[in-house]
Amino acid sequence: MSEFVLGPLSSPWRTRLEHEGFALIPEAVSAETVESLLRALPSVESSSNASRRGGVRNLLEDVPEVQALALQGPVRDVAERVLGRDCFAVRGLMFDKTPESNWKVIWHQDLTIAVRERREVPGFGPWSHKAGVECVQPPSEVLESMVAVRLHLDDCGSDNGPVRVLPGSHRDGRLSPVQTQARLEQQPAEDCLASARGLLVMRPLLLHASSPARVPRHRRVLHLEFAACELPAGLEWHTRIGGPGPAQTQGVANARASMT
Question: pTM for this structure?
Answer without folding.
Answer: 0.89
